[in-house]
Amino acid sequence: MSAAPINLAPSPTTPHSLLPGAVRGAVLADVPQLLALMAPFVASGDLLPRSEYDLCRHIKEYLVVEAGEAIVGCGSLKIYSQELAELAALAVHEDCQGTGLGRVVVEALVAEARALGLQKVFALTRKPVFFLRVGFAEADKAEFPLKVWADCARCPRQACCDEVAVARQV
Ligand SMILES: CC(C)(COP(=O)(O)OP(=O)(O)OC[C@H]1O[C@@H](n2cnc3c(N)ncnc32)[C@H](O)[C@@H]1OP(=O)(O)O)[C@@H](O)C(=O)NCCC(=O)NCCS
């Protein structure tokens, strides 16, 4: 099922902070829209599934991109240590893909990682070319044993994983 179309045209009264591409920290009221935004990409296998409970518990890790009332992009920063965090839950509504929003979310998460004093961010992805375009380089999954322990160990695709590890200094 494809997602509902998004009207990106700002009205003359749209405040600057609500123009397409405005990034802010997620709040609990965003949870239903976050679930809806990620659903098609969970179905396609590009994102891991997340429950409403999981999103509520970890809402402070998430950033969202707004276009008026709609959330058209998101991503999260999952901290593993004083040095390392994972970029996860990266999604842009299909109507808005290819317009630079994915890059906006990545740069916002990297800026947050830098502000926190982290040194490196990584992702496991089926879209490595996107990550290479936004400053990441291919990495070895073995560098991220905590991720493998936390998520890969309970992933149904672990025996036939097609995800590539990518990493970027922050
Ligand atoms: C991957 C995703 C977040 C990219 O978002 P986006 O807004 O379309 O990306 P941008 O427009 O910011 O693109 C930034 C650059 O990456 C490139 N790019 C984007 N998606 C790409 C893809 N699937 N394959 C190759 N390159 C891609 C763009 O051409 C652009 O390159 P340029 O700046 O050199 O011209 C988006 O396609 C998406 O939500 N996909 C489904 C969920 C998903 O796979 N998430 C990643 C899970 S780790």
Could you explain how this protein is built, in words?
The structure is a single chain. The protein has 170 residues and is of the alpha+beta class. The chain has a single domain (16-169), classed as Gcn5-related N-acetyltransferase (GNAT) (Aminopeptidase). The chain is built from five helices and seven strands; from the N terminus they run E-H-H-E-E-E-H-E-H-E-H-E. It has helices at 31-43, 52-57, 101-116, 128-133, 145-150; strands spanning 22-25, 62-67, 70-79, 84-92, 120-125, 137-138, 164-169. It has a seven-stranded mixed sheet with strand order 1-2-3-4-5-7-6, with helices on both faces. Strand 4, helix 3 (101-116) and strand 5 (120-125) form a beta-alpha-beta unit. The longest helix has 16 residues, at 101-116. Mean pLDDT is 87; it is low at 10-19. Bound molecules: coenzyme A. The site of coenzyme A has 20 residues, from strand 4, helix 3, strand 5 and helix 4.
Strand-helix topology:
Layout: E1 22-25, H1 31-43, H2 52-57, E2 62-67, E3 70-79, E4 84-92, H3 101-116, E5 120-125, H4 128-133, E6 137-138, H5 145-150, E7 164-169
Parallel strand pairs: 4-5
Antiparallel strand pairs: 1-2, 2-3, 3-4, 5-7, 6-7
The protein binds coenzyme A.
Coenzyme A (COA) binds at residues 41, 46-47, 90-92, 97-103, 123, 125, 127, 129-130, 133-134.
